[in-house]
C-alpha cells in the first residue's frame, strides 16, 4: 500500500495569486500527491554563479566541463513554476484530502466520476516579481509613510572563533600573525524550506569541525601553537557562497579582525559521513597549485600523517579535477591560498540526496534501539558518530600540526564520540534535549524543538546559527565564576574584556535531587559577523561577483477544499439566476412607471377639525 506523502501547507516565492484544481491523486515515487502540485522553487532570484573557474582562471575547468559532482540532480530547485505548489505535513490533512478524493472523484467501474466533485483552491500571493534588481528597486519606491517591502536579501550570521582571541574593535592586517582557517558550511536547502535538513550536505561537516575544535581545547591551552587557528562556520553557502564571500569582502576592505594576507592556509570540511571503504579524499585546486607561492603539500602531508591508529586513509584524487562546490573557491577568487577540501567522495557525490529533504538522519543510517527513551538515544553512540569522531580526530591533529604545535602531543589529540553523538541527535532528531538545553541561554530555550531548519532565510540569527554559536563557545571556552549581572557587564571588572571575549550566560544542567539549574557564565573567543551578500551593501543588485539571492514577501498562505457541482447544474443555476435578474428588472421597471398610482396618498381637507 503506497504511503501518503508528508509535507507543509506553505509555498514560498512565485508569481501567482491563486489556483483552483480538481483533486486528482496520482502516484509519484511511492507517494500520493495532488495533481499539478508537485514542487516549487521558493525564491525570487538572479543567479550569479560564484565558481572560481572561468575563462580567465582555469578555462579548461570552467563551465562544468569536467567533473559532474551531482549526477543525480536535475536542477528542479532552479525551475520556475507558474502555479502554487503546496505540501502537507500533517497526516490528518493528507488523509482528509485523500478521503475527499475517494468519496467524490474516483471513477467506478471505468465510468466517469459523478458530480459533485472535490476541488481545492490554493492561495499564495507573492509580492515580488521578475528578479532581484526589479524587486529591490521596488523596495526603494516610497509612496506612503509605511512603504511595503516586496523582497529581502537572503542572509544570516557567520559564526567564528579562534584559539587565541582577537580584539573585535581592531580590524585589518595583523603584523607577524599567521592564521590557519578551518571552515564548514551551516546551511542547506530542499525544495520546501522547512524540510531542508542537509544531514550529509552540511551537518556532517560542521559537527565534525565542532568536535575537532573541542578536541583542540586542552592541547592548545597546554602548548599553544605558533599560528592561530580560526574556526569559521559560514551561512548561506548554498546560495552562491553568501557567508564566505562576505568574510572575504570584509577581509579585503579592512572590516574583519584579520585580512587575507594573514591567512596561511584553509582546511574545509565537506561531506564526510558517507565514505565507503577506507578512504577520504583531499581535494585541492589544480590551478593555484601551479603557483610557486602556493604550497598545499604541507597541509596534505599533515592530514595524511594524522590517521595513525584510525581505520581509514586520506588520499588525493587520481585525476586532475576542479574543486568540488566549497567555500574555499570564494577565497581563491580573491587570492591564491593553500587549501584542502576534505570529503568522502573522489568525484561524484556519494550523497544520493544532495539538497533534498531525503538528506536526513536516515541517510546517515542514524538509528536508535526502538525501546530507548529520548535521553537514552541522546547518549547512544551510533556507528555514524564513531566514524565522524575519527574524522574529527584527524582534522584536529592536522590543524595542530599546520599551526606548528608541539609534535609530541599530536597523538594525544582525540575527539569525543559522546559529544559527536549528542550533536548528531540534537541537529537531526531533536534539539530540545537535555544537553542542548544546558548549553543555551535561558532566553533562547524556546528555539529548541524538533530538528531545526537549515534554510538560511531572511530572519537574521536563525536557530542553527545560535546553536552553533553556543556549542562552539561551550566546547572551546571556559566556565567562569561570574554572576549573571557580571556576565552581562564584564567590562566593569578589572580582568575581563568584551573586546577580547564574548560572555554567554547559559542554563547549565539540573543536578540530581534538584529542580534548579546550575547556570554559569561562559567566556569564549566566539563571534558572530554578518553573512549578507556584499552586493546589497554596494547596491549592485545584478552583480556577477557576489550572490544576489532574495526572497519574496508573501501574504497569508492558505488552501480551502470544497465540492463543485456539475457543469450542467452550474449552467442551470446560472440560467435561473439570469432569469430571476431580468424578471426583477421588469418588475422594477413596471413599479417605477406606475409609482404615482401605486404609492399615491389621499390628502385630507385642511379645514378638517377634530
Give the SSE layout.
Elements: E1 3-4, E2 18-22, E3 25-28, E4 31-34, E5 44-46, H1 91-104, E6 117-123, H2 132-139, E7 151-153, E8 155-162, E9 179-185, H3 199-222, E10 228-234, H4 242-252, E11 263-269, E12 279-283, H5 297-304, E13 313-315, H6 328-334, E14 339-343, H7 374-379, H8 383-402, H9 417-428, H10 434-439, H11 463-476, E15 478-480, H12 484-488, E16 502-506, E17 520-524, E18 526-532, H13 534-538, E19 548-552, E20 558-564, H14 567-593, H15 595-598
Parallel strand pairs: 1-4, 9-10, 9-11, 11-14, 12-13
Antiparallel strand pairs: 2-6, 3-4, 5-19, 6-20, 7-19, 8-10, 8-18, 12-14, 15-17, 16-17
Throw out a few tags for this protein.
alpha/beta; Aminopeptidase; 2 domains; three-stranded mixed sheet; elongated; disordered N terminus
Number of strands: 20
Tally of helical runs: 15
- First-residue to last-residue Cα separation: 92 Å
Task: Identify the strand order in the major beta sheet.
Answer: 13-12-14-11-9-10-8-18
Query: Spans with pLDDT under 50 lasting ≥5 residues?
Result: 1-48
| Biggest sheet layout | 8 strands, mixed
CATH topology of the largest domain: Aminopeptidase
* Residue fraction in strands: 15-25%
What is the total domain count?
2
Helix content: 25-40%
- State the oligomer: single chain
What is the CATH level 1 assignment of the largest domain? Answer: Alpha Beta
Structural class: alpha/beta
General form? elongated
CATH architecture of the largest domain: 3-Layer(aba) Sandwich
Rg (CA only): 31 Å
Mean pLDDT score: 85
Amino acid at each position: 500500500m503506497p504511503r501518503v506523502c508528508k509535507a507543509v501547507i506553505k509555498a514560498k516565492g512565485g508569481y501567482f495569486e491563486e489556483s483552483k484544481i480538481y483533486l486528482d491523486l496520482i502516484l509519484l515515487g511511492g507517494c500520493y500527491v495532488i495533481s499539478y502540485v508537485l514542487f516549487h522553487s521558493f525564491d525570487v532570484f538572479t543567479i550569479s554563479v560564484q565558481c572560481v573557474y572561468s575563462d580567465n582562471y582555469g578555462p579548461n575547468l570552467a563551465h562544468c566541463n569536467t567533473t559532474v559532482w551531482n549526477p543525480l540532480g536535475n536542477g528542479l530547485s532552479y525551475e520556475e513554476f507558474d502555479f502554487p505548489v503546496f505540501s502537507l505535513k500533517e497526516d490528518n490533512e493528507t488523509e482528509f484530502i485523500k478521503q475527499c478524493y475517494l468519496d467524490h472523484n474516483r471513477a467506478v467501474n471505468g465510468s466517469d466520476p459523478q458530480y459533485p466533485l472535490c476541488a481545492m483552491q490554493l492561495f499564495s500571493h507573492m509580492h515580488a516579481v521578475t528578479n532581484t534588481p526589479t524587486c529591490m528597486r521596488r523596495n526603494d519606491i516610497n509612496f506612503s509613510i509605511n512603504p511595503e517591502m516586496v523582497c529581502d536579501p537572503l542572509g544570516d550570521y557567520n559564526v567564528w572563533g579562534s584559539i587565541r582571541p582577537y580584539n573585535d574593535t581592531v580590524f585589518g592586517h595583523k603584523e607577524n600573525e599567521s592564521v590557519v582557517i578551518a571552515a564548514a558550511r551551516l546551511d542547506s536547502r530542499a525544495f520546501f524550506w522547512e524540510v531542508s535538513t542537509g544531514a550529509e550536505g552540511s551537518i556532517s561537516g560542521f559537527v565534525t569541525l565542532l568536535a575537532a575544535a573541542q578536541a583542540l581545547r586542552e592541547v592548545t591551552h597546554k602548548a599553544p601553537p605558533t599560528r592561530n587557528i580560526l574556526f569559521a562556520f559560514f551561512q548561506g553557502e548554498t546560495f552562491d557562497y553568501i557567508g564566505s564571500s562576505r568574510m572575504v569582502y570584509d577581509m579585503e576592505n579592512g572590516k574583519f579582525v584579520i585580512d587575507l594576507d594573514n591567512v596561511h592556509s584553509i582546511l574545509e570540511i565537506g561531506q564526510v559521513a558517507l565514505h565507503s571503504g577506507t578512504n577520504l579524499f583531499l581535494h585541492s585546486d589544480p590551478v593555484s597549485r601551479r603557483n610557486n607561492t602556493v604550497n598545499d603539500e604541507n597541509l596534505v602531508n599533515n592530514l595524511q600523517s594524522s590517521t595513525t591508529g584510525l581505520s581509514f586513509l586520506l588520499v588525493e584524487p587520481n585525476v586532475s579535477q576542479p574543486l568540488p562546490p566549497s567555500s574555499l573557491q570564494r577565497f581563491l577568487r580573491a587570492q591564491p591560498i593553500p587549501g584542502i577540501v576534505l570529503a568522502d567522495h573522489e568525484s561524484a557525490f556519494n550523497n544520493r540526496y544532495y539538497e533534498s529533504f531525503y538528506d536526513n538522519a536516515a541517510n546517515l543510517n542514524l538509528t536508535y534501539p526502538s525501546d530507548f527513551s529520548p535521553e537514552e538515544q541522546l547518549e547512544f553512540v551510533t556507528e555514524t558518530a564513531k566514524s565522524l569522531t575519527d574524522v574529527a580526530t584527524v582534522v584536529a591533529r592536522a590543524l595542530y600540526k599546520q599551526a606548528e604545535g608541539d609534535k609530541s602531543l599530536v597523538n594525544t589529540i582525540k575527539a569525543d564520540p559522546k559529544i559527536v553523538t549528542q550533536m548528531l541527535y540534537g541537529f537531526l532528531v531533536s534539539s530540545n534535549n537535555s544537553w542542548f538545553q544546558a548549553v543555551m541561554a535561558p532566553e533562547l530555550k524556546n528555539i529548541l524543538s524538533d530538528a531545526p531548519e537549515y534554510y538560511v532565510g531572511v530572519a537574521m540569527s536563525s536557530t542553527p546559527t545560535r546553536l552553533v554559536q553556543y556549542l562552539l563557545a561551550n566546547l572551546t571556552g571556559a566556565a567562569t565564576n561570574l554572576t549573571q549581572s557580571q556576565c552581562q557587564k564584564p567590562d566593569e571588572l578589572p580582568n575581563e574584556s568584551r573586546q577580547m571575549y564574548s560572555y554567554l550566560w547559559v542554563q547549565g544542567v539540573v543536578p540530581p535531587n534538584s529542580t534548579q539549574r546550575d547556570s554559569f557564565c561562559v567566556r569564549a573567543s566566539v563571534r558572530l559577523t554578518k553573512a549578507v551578500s556584499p552586493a546589497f551593501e554596494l547596491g549592485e543588485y545584478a552583480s556577477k561577483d557576489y550572490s544576489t539571492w532574495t526572497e519574496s514577501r508573501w501574504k497569508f498562505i492558505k488552501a480551502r477544499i470544497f465540492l463543485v457541482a456539475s457543469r450542467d447544474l452550474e449552467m442551470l443555476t446560472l440560467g435561473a439566476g439570469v432569469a430571476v435578474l431580468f424578471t426583477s428588472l421588469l418588475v422594477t421597471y413596471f413599479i417605477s412607471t406606475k409609482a404615482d398610482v401605486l404609492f399615491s396618498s389621499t390628502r385630507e381637507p385642511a379645514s378638517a377639525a377634530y
